[in-house]
Structure formats: structure tokens, C-alpha cells
Amino acid sequence: MTSIREQAGLDVAALRNHFPALARTHDGVPLAYLDGPGGTQVPRECIAAMTAYLERSNANRGGAFTASGETDALVDEAHAAAADFLGAHHPDEIAFGPNMTTLTYAVSRALGRDLAPGDEIVVTRLDHDANVAPWLALAEDRGLVVRWIELAEDRATLDLDLLDDVLTPRTRVVAVGMASNALGTVTDVGRVIEAAHAVEAIAYVDAVHAAPHLPIDVSALQADLLVCSPYKFFGPHLGMLYGRRDLLERLDAYRVRPAGDAPPGKWEVGTQNHEALAGLLGTFGYLERLGAAYGSVAGADDRRGRLRAAMSAIHEHERVLSLAVLERLATVPVLRLFGLVDRDRVDERVPTFSFTLPGHRARTIAEHLATRGISAWDGDFYAWELVRELGLAGEGGLLRIGLVHYNTVEEVDRVVAALVELIG
User: Fold this and answer.
1) Full-model pTM
2) In whole angstroms, how far apart are CA 218 and each of 87, 187, 190, 378?
3) Is the residue at 1 inside a domain?
4) Does 22 share its domain with 90?
């Protein structure tokens, strides 16, 4: 296997060799996976770990026999590694589920037990609908008031200057995204969490789109609850929830009775996807190797430090990618890029870019790119409120390309060439 060797920047060619899917071709041309916001590719370490578990240790938990004991150890290690990845204080602050949406519905229902008619929930116009619809449904069921953090004048960020007007003494939950899956905007969630706590509200953070791009430290953020999806950061299809231990213990989850009252068990309803947890540990192993080779973060001599170093190195690398994409897309005639387009604000975004081309619906653009071996998404990407605010819901939505650390500037050049070909 190709090693991850230490040098000034990421050796992308070496890193790409860890991802078998990247070797696939279309009409003799390597496939360009620019569909990362919908789910990234996985490294060999993830695949090998899943295979090894299924070959040797596939069993349910709690038994007196060998494979069951190995599964117990695997699940415990997955909680510990995830706690390190997110900066949690304790493995019991991590719960796994099938996906972020399912976990959010479960948590919203548990929180709803303590809410009364007239209490307020705050959501945003920038978020993925998985961090909006569950709260709207809860509000309808419990007679709650929904208040909105609206878009700022730039139509790319949230108007956080109006937080004090939106949050009131009746606010009980504030749901906010760390990064927009449609525009790539990074929101100052620390500011939102601080404002939520000032009115004694619980802050629920959607970090699904941030997790592949940014180091996350829930302790530093003082987040109450934060959720992400491993399949968006090079792992298998899973959902992953962080919750303050005292909060997870206090809330009454909907669960089967033998699960007990202690986290994380009462939040992990039913049998977990053990092979996916094994794969997640493989992904964390890949990231640890990357962090050990490239990291300059103090304290990178343990897993938590290596994971943080890896994500810091990825973030710095992707900053350069974002600048390159902004430069290249600006050369495409008539292309309208939504979101932050100012290069001086590149630190406020991740490398996710959505645009339109007059005369071409987003689906048509995606189909044309596919003929050139380029994977890209079209539509609203479940950023339901945002796309309607932008006036694009009836127009087919946006065409989105999303880069992660294994993508290259050469792949972006292929996108530009294909777009020029289409409009030419």
C-alpha cells in the first residue's frame, strides 16, 4: 500500500491510492467524483475492516462466546474513536444510528417531551431539511412557535446580527448547521451556541457537511448536541450523534425497555450496524496515518491529536482547492455561482460550489458532465428552504460540485471544459 509520506503539502497522488473507487474509468478517462457532498468514497482501510469483521467476528452483542465478545470490544472502540474525532469528553457521549435524519427525529421527539405549547424552536433558511423538518413536525405536534434565522443580504450566509431579535426567553431549542451542503458557507456556530445558552436554550448542531472539511471540537464549541454522518467523511453509511453526557442521561428516549436508562445504549435503538462501525474504525485509522504524516498540531501523539491534525491538514489543503475553483469557474461565460464568491472570504467556506447556466436546467448539466466521466449532483440537495429563497425551486435547482481532499484541480479543469463545451 502506498504510504502517506511527510512533506510540505498533501501528496494527493499517494492519498488517492488509498481509495479504490478513484481508479475507475469512464470511456478510458478516470471518473471524477465531485459528488462528495452526497457521500464520499472510502479508503481501503475502511473496506478491509468491514470485510475482516464479517469474515471473523460477525455476531450480536452481550454473548458469552468469542465473536460476541469481539463485537462488544469493537463497538466500545468505535465510541471511543468517535469521541476523539469530535472532541467529546467521554465515549458515552457518542451514539450511533442509521443516519443523521433518524437520529435527529429521535432527539427531537425526546426533547419534545419537556416542551409546552407556546415554547419556541429556532431553525434557519440555510440548513439541510434534516435539521429543519423534524423541528417543524415537533412544533406542529406540540403547539410550539417556530422562529427563523433568515439569510443575510448576500444570500449566502445567515443574518446572525439579528440573533437577539430571534431568540427570546421562550426559546427552548436552536437548530443550526455548521456548513451549508448547498453553498459551502461555514456558519459561526459558536456565536449561535453562545446566544442560545444566553436564553437557556439547547443548541442542536448539524455538522454533516462540515465533518469532511473541518476539525470539530464539541468541547470548545460547548455544543449541547451535534450530529454528523460518517459516510460524508470517508466512512460507511452511519449517523453519529454527540450529546452532553448530563443531557443524554436526563432526556427520556423512546426505546425498548431492556436498553436501560444509560447512554449511549438508550439512544441506539435496536441492533447496530457492526460491520459499518468496523469500517468507521478503518476510516479513522486512515485519518490517523494522515495526521501523523502531515500534522503540525501540538499533541498529535495520541489518536485525538492525530485525528485533529489530519482534519487541520485537510482544511488547509482544501483552502487552496477552493481558491482554484473560484478562479476557474469565473472563466465560464454566463455561469452564475451562488454563495460566497469573494476570494477574500474563502475562509468562510468549504469547497462546495453550486451554480446555474442560463438555458440549461441543472439536470441537463449533470447529465452532460456524466458523459464526460464527471459525477455531480443537481437539484435542491434537501436544502429545501434555501433553494426556495433563491427562487430556484421551479427552475430545477442548482448544479453542485463538491471537492474533498482526494480531488484535484485537474478534475475542476475537466468540469470547466465540459461546461464551455455545453454552452458553446
Assistant:
1) 0.95
2) 6, 15, 10, 32
3) no
4) no
